[in-house]
Design goal:
- This protein is α/β, with parallel strands linked by helices and 326 residues long.
- The protein has two domains: 189 residues, Rossmann fold (3-Layer(aba) Sandwich); 73 residues, no CATH class.
- It is 35% helix and 24% strand.
- It has an eight-stranded mixed β-sheet with strand order 6-7-8-3-9-10-12-11, with helices on both faces. A four-stranded antiparallel β-sheet has the order 2-1-4-5, covered by helices on one side.
- A hairpin with a 2-residue loop joins β4 and β5.
- α4 packs across α5 and α4 packs parallel to α7.
- The longest helix is centred in the middle third of the chain and has 18 residues.
- It is globular.
- The structure holds adenosine-5'-triphosphate and magnesium ion.
Length: 326
């Protein structure tokens, strides 16, 4: 049994304009101690998938159907008390913008200690020691002194380190990192990613790394889920995705960034705009932007084809290959 099992998850927002189908039948497993990347362009449903797992959707958002099991325990439909015990203890999340997640009026130490006291059975002194230890772990220098400072006294990169410390202080089994480095500049990004890799090795937790940056995936992830318009278009190991992409959207993503495979070639961004989630097309959601689209792509949504064990792609281009294999 995988540590986290997401099956056929559908999440929508019920707005005045209609039902926004942000997540449409997403399924994936996260194994203990592994790093799973979720990639896809802006609006593809990465954050909504994460918020569905944590059940921290805004009031108009609702999980319409599907199952999310953590350690075998069903979270969809679970009581808020159950979710409270899951959040922070079993699953922690780090958000994109560390400034909005830290309270400017409390010291870093107070906020770290609050999280530790809330989620573990430590007393105040032990919580203080643990907070200092965590700041040390995320490479914040002079942690004792830093405990007494306020968020504005920290740089962006340092604040993100604090957020990581806070998320990890309660030793969750799963850490969801939702674009943890997008708000930071490139050199600081690299440092934070190194740090996450390090901590993952030391603490052995599983990570869901949400990003639109395939470079981050290459550095960190074992398994990758590629999302487009709320659906998974391709899923496989990082090697499958980089060396044998089988969905036209994944291929497009790879053509748009420098990789070992396209050295010296001109980078090609994916043209066109994402589809309107209020009016989902009948066929493949990527078809209107896909250079290789065939008639069937417009007519019928493609179910996932199995390319190899644990590698699937929902792209009609694989039909012939799949038929040849059978
Ligand atoms: N509260 C909401 N009300 C209505 N629609 C929403 C709401 N939150 C998200 N959505 C829609 O759901 C879709 C998926 O959003 P999501 O935030 O998951 O994208 P994302 O993949 O995380 O993108 P980004 O890379 O920009 O963070 C988007 O089209 C978005 O407009
Ligand atoms: Mg997002």
């Amino acid at each position: 049994m995988a540590l986290l099992e997401v099956k056929d998850l559908h999440t929508s927002f019920f707005t005045d304009a209609g039902e926004v189908r942000a997540v449409n039948g997403v399924s994936f497993d996260l194994e203990r101690g592994k790093v799973l990347g979720i990639v896809g362009e802006s609006g593809s449903g990465k954050s909504v998938t994460a918020y569905s797992i944590m059940q921290i959707l805004t009031s108009t958002g609702r999980i319409v159907s599907g199952s999310i099991k953590c350690d075998g325990q069903e979270l969809v439909g679970a009581d808020e008390n159950v979710m409270k015990s899951i959040r922070g203890n079993k699953i922690s999340i780090i958000f994109q913008d560390p400034m909005t997640s830290l309270n400017p009026t409390y010291t870093i130490g107070d906020q770290l200690m609050e999280a530790i006291l809330l989620h573990t059975k430590r007393n105040k002194q032990q919580a203080w020691d643990r907070a200092v230890e965590m700041l040390h772990l995320v490479n914040v220098n002079e942690p004792e002194k830093r405990m007494k400072q306020y968020p504005f006294e920290f740089s962006g990169g340092m604040r993100q380190r604090v957020m990581i410390a806070m998320a990890l202080a309660c030793e969750p089994d799963i850490l969801i990192a939702d674009e943890p480095t997008t708000a930071l500049d490139v050199t600081i990004q690299a440092g934070i990613l190194e740090l996450m890799k390090d901590i993952q090795k030391k603490m052995g937790m599983a990570i869901i790394m949400i990003t639109h940056d395939l470079g981050v995936v290459a550095q960190l992830c074992d398994e990758v889920v590629v999302m487009y318009a709320g659906s998974i278009c391709e899923k496989g190991t990082a090697d499958d995705i980089f060396y044998n992409p089988c969905h036209e959207y994944t291929k497009g993503l790879l053509r748009s960034i420098p990789t070992a495979g396209n050295e010296g070639q001109k980078l090609q961004p994916i043209t066109g705009t994402p589809i309107d989630l209020l009016n989902m097309p009948k066929g493949c959601p990527f078809a209107p932007r896909c250079d290789a689209a065939m008639k069937i792509c417009i007519r019928e949504k493609c179910e996932s084809f199995e390319i190899s064990e644990n590698h699937t792609a929902a792209c009609w281009m694989n039909l012939k290959k799949a038929m040849d294999r059978n």
